[in-house]
Amino acid sequence: MVNPAISISLKQDVRRPSVWRRARFSLIRAKWPLVAIAILLVVTFCAAFGPLISPKDPNRQNLVLRLAPPFQVEGANPEFPLGTDGLGRDILSRLIYGARVSLLVGLTAVVIGGMLGTSLGVVAGYFGGRVDDIIMRIADVQLAFPFILLTIMVLVVLGPGIPNLVLVLGIGQWVTYARIARGQTISQREKEYVEAARSMGANHWRIMFRSILPNVLAPLIIISSFNVASVILSEASLSFLGLGVPPTVPTWGGMLAESRDQLLAGKWWLAVFPGIAIMMTVLAINILGDWLRDFLDPRLRGAGF
Question: In this structure, which topology does domain 21-303 adopt according to CATH?
Answer without folding.
Answer: MetI-like fold (1.10.3720)
